[in-house]
């Protein structure tokens, strides 16, 4: 690279987002999304070229290398367009509006997203990745730019007219509202249909719900656990549990799981969970920590608890800010060695066979003659001399001759193969793992996206809190509380009572905010509120409850749609957003309205504020048609439908939170998976937040001076229970 003094610099240099900063030295005259760019387009009567991506997106890097770093293409872009760059993780609102357009007009979508807009921001042409030059099957980016500029010169009015028509059509098709009938759909049918649809798409051999690519989709697993809990004695219930546990086991054995440096990659390109796309996203770690915790609660199998510890070790070590927040992601691409010129996908994670042999040469005493550590490790993790990646899954030959580790055998089989005790094998594999982890530490690390998002921090706090409760690990609960305190300090504005979307790691571990902070979106409120409820149940600190209820009121005020019901993803009154949308799909993250249903039901239990239950029903009514026809697209909302119809149980423990008898009862509650309960401790302090919210608590007392549990429904309580066995029986539906 040329010395910094010579490098071209554009306006993105003043931004905080790592993704935008990656483009600050392109010859393209990039603007961030905002008034300055909009005004320029209007004054100069120019079209806008909008490019949306994120910092761990492989094809975004490719398009930058090929097109945005090209001086010649940069000149065409600057001459004919006002060019705007958006980080979709900072601005999911902008991303969603234009992705809705791209999907509707091209039948597909993805990133980088490339969209051409009129000066008043209406889209009329778009796509995803474009190669720089024309090829046999595709038009090149340069050609598209010149054609569109030509059209604007020749047929301006026709373009403006078609962009107006497109917008009207999008408005119409993207609307989600109550259709006449105002009641939530019937839970049993919706649950059964969703189960059948998942069951049909389930991969019996390898788990998961498609052939390839395979995503972890925690929302499917969460649904299956709840389905099992409500149908424990039926064959369908047993199958639901088997599908979820088998999927989690196969993922943990697969290459999508980083066997050396922990955590999970984003998705697998093949059916076997073997060759992943190597980026690691915070939202996956948070949700998977919660799912593996549930698997452990239900099965009691330590295997799942070990995976939880593995994920949380990775996040604590590699995605944690010193001040307490969590970073967004680690990239897939990195330099194979310190002297490499070109980044390769997966370079930080993959191994050549000879490299492993050189690192693990030690002969093993007591094993079959001549066996080395390398032999055992390579056998166990499916390492092959010529590499174990199918060339079909490696179109750019970046993984040629390399191995992606995948646990091919059970520890018992590997042990038997080399004549070792299973306990001894475990110790040997651990020794290998530590050695390889040190070797990897010498490699150049992939890029770390250090922006901190409220929504994703919420998902991660839930992961730590639920793991802390299920595994009885106080350290995890403390980490969750530290992150929640971070959100309160850095991503909440006490003067307005509102959440902020993002903050950033600054110099010397400071935390920075952009000049104009981005206000929180619906997903930020929903995932943070969920996190605060999870954190209260794990820590019993009432301050988190109080903040959660405050945020729920604020969410209602900013996002609720009083006419069509449910919440909009964005607040009203932003002229640069052409559509106010409601997401209608639980994907890699659940859609906010799905989680909002359960949040509202929990909020009502902690506050006695019953119109929150009514609101929850109205969300389900707004999505009723979709829930009845294709519930597989909304498994988290289907789960919430069941919780809505079964009514949450309020499990109240009257006792001293520090007392051994109270702790024993709490331990019992945390060790049972019960999807339709909320937990509260009545500690006898009538001035505390919960007693002020819920007058009925004052009438509950300890029996014989012992910690006493009550299971209540709609504030009507069962007889008091002082034995842990009885309590366990009452918790299982």
TrEMBL record:
CDD domains the UniProt entry points to: SSP411
Domain Spermatogenesis-associated protein 20-like TRX: 9-170
Entry's transmembrane regions: none
Biological process per Gene Ontology, one example term: carbohydrate metabolic process
Pfam families for this protein: Thioredox_DsbH
InterPro entries, sorted: 6-hairpin_glycosidase_sf, 6hp_glycosidase-like_sf, Ssp411, Ssp411-like_TRX, Thioredoxin-like_sf
PANTHER family: SPERMATOGENESIS-ASSOCIATED PROTEIN 20
Protein name in the entry: SPT20 protein
Gene it is expressed from: Spata20
């Amino acid at each position: 690279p040329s010395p910094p003094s010579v490098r071209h610099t554009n306006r993105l240099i003043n931004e905080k987002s790592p993704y935008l900063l990656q483009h600050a030295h392109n010859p393209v005259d990039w603007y961030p999304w905002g008034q300055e760019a909009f005004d320029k387009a209007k004054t100069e009567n120019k079209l806008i070229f909008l490019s949306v991506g994120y910092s761990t997106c492989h094809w975004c890097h490719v398009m930058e290398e090929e097109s945005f770093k090209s001086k010649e293409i940069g000149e065409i872009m600057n001459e004919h367009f006002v060019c705007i760059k958006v980080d979709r993780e900072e601005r999911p609102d902008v991303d969603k509006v234009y992705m809705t357009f791209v999907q509707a007009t091209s039948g597909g979508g993805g990133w980088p997203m490339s969209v051409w807009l009129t000066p008043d921001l209406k889209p009329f042409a778009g796509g995803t990745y474009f190669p720089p030059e024309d090829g046999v099957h595709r038009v090149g980016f340069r050609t598209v730019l010149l054609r569109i500029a030509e059209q604007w010169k020749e047929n301006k009015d026709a373009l403006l007219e078609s962009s107006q028509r497109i917008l009207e059509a999008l408005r119409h098709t993207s609307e989600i509202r109550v259709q006449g009938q105002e009641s939530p759909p019937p839970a049993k049918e919706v649950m059964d249909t969703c189960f059948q649809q998942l069951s049909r798409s389930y991969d019996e051999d390898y788990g998961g719900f498609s052939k390839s690519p395979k995503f972890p989709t925690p929302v499917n697993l969460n649904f299956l656990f709840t389905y099992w809990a409500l149908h424990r004695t039926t064959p369908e219930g047993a199958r639901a549990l088997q599908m979820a546990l088998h999927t989690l086991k196969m993922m943990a054995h697969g290459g999508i799981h980083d066997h050396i440096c922990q955590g999970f990659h984003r998705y697998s390109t093949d059916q076997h969970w073997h060759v992943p796309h190597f980026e690691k996203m915070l939202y996956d770690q948070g949700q998977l920590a919660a799912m593996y915790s549930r698997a452990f609660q239900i099965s009691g199998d330590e295997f799942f608890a070990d995976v939880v510890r593995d994920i949380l070790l990775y996040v604590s070590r590699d995605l944690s800010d010193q001040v307490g927040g969590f970073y967004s992601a680690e990239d897939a691409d990195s330099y194979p060695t310190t002297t490499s010129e070109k980044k390769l996908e997966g370079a930080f994670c993959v191994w050549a066979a000879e490299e492993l042999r050189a690192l693990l040469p030690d002969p093993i005493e007591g094993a079959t003659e001549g066996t080395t550590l390398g032999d055992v490790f390579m056998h166990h993790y499916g390492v092959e001399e010529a590499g174990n990646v199918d060339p079909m899954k490696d179109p750019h030959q970046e993984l040629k001759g390399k191995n992606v580790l995948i646990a091919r055998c059970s520890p018992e089989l590997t042990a038997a193969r080399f004549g070792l005790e299973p306990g001894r094998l475990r110790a040997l594999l651990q020794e290998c793992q530590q050695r390889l982890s040190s070797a990897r530490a010498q490699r150049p690390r992939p890029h770390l996206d250090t922006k901190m998002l409220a929504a994703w921090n919420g998902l991660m706090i839930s992961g730590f809190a639920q793991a802390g409760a299920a595994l009885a690990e106080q350290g995890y609960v403390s980490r969750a509380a530290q992150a929640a305190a971070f959100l309160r300090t850095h991503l909440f504005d006490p003067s307005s009572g509102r959440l902020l979307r993002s903050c950033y790691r600054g110099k010397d571990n400071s935390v920075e905010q952009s000049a104009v902070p981005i206000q929180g979106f619906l997903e930020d409120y929903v995932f943070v509120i969920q996190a605060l409820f999870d954190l209260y149940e794990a820590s019993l600190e009432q301050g988190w409850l109080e903040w959660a209820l405050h945020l729920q009121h604020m969410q209602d005020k900013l996002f609720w749609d009083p006419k069509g019901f449910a919440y909009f993803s964005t607040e009203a009154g932003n002229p640069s957003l052409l559509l106010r949308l409601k997401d209608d799909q639980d994907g890699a993250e659940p859609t906010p309205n799905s989680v909002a249903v359960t949040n509202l039901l929990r909020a009502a239990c902690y506050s006695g504020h019953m119109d929150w239950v009514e609101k929850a029903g109205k969300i389900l009514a707004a999505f009723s048609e979709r829930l009845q026809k294709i519930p597989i697209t909304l498994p988290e909302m289907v789960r919430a439908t069941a919780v809505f119809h079964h009514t949450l149980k309020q499990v109240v423990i009257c006792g001293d939170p520090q007392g051994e008898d109270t702790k024993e009862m709490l331990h019992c509650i945390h060790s049972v998976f019960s999807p339709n309960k909320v937990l509260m401790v009545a500690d006898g302090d009538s001035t505390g937040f919960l007693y002020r919210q819920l007058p009925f608590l004052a009438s509950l007392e300890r029996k014989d001076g012992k910690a006493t549990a009550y299971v209540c429904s709609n504030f009507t309580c069962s007889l008091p229970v002082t034995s842990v066995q009885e309590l366990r029986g009452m918790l299982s539906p």
